[in-house]
Design a protein that fits this description.
- It is a single chain.
- By secondary structure, the protein is of the alpha+beta class.
- It is 25% helix and 29% strand.
- The protein has a nine-stranded mixed beta sheet with strand order 1-2-3-4-5-6-7-9-8, with helices on both faces.
- The chain is globular, with a radius of gyration of 15 Å.
Length: 174
């Protein structure tokens, strides 16, 4: 289980946080999203539009299904998929981008921050990664707050988009 030193634990199911399991998509889940088929272990409003984009990408580029790739966000208590999160592997000169989304019915519970903190910390264990970044439109203050709560630091802001980064040692426990 997660500890004070780490926001996640690596288990047979994937990365486990206090309330979530972050696991690799199965081929059947990717096919279901692309085909528009509902699965029983999905929240009622999963997949969201972004999940469909990711599923389509992963269907065409299965190399994204690596330990440092894209994952489903699953509630530990219910077992329901409630979103997705991913690292856009491979890194470019030691920098990798993270992206995430949680369905509307599960927003406001801190899941996106919890998942982002875990995936960023995990990415920084790779010898190929020294920085994890994310970009967010300032018109989306909830997503800005997700990144702040996850421990990323705002590095730039052009008035429309903010760039956040985390480096080893940046993530502190709240």
């Amino acid at each position: 289980m997660p500890s004070a030193a780490s926001p996640y634990a690596v288990t047979g199911a994937g990365l486990t946080t206090e309330r979530l399991v972050l696991r690799t998509w199965s081929p059947g889940e990717l096919t279901a999203v692309v085909d528009g088929t509902r699965l029983a272990h999905w929240a009622e409003d999963f997949p969201a539009e972004g999940d469909g984009v990711i599923a389509g990408f992963l269907t065409e580029h299965p190399q994204g299904l690596t330990p440092y790739g894209h994952r489903l966000i699953v509630e530990r208590d219910s077992g329901l998929a409630v979103g997705s999160i991913g690292l856009f592997w491979p890194p470019n000169d030691g920098v990798i981008e993270v992206g995430y989304g949680v369905v509307a019915s599960r927003r406001g519970r801190g899941y996106a921050s919890e998942a982002t903190r875990a995936v960023v910390a995990y990415a920084l264990t790779s010898p190929d990664v020294h920085t994890v970044c994310a970009q967010v439109e300032l018109s989306n203050p909830a997503s800005v707050r997700v990144l702040e709560k996850a421990g990323l630091r705002r590095r730039s802001d052009d008035g429309v988009t903010a760039r956040f980064e985390a480096r080893a040692g940046d993530l502190t426990q709240e």
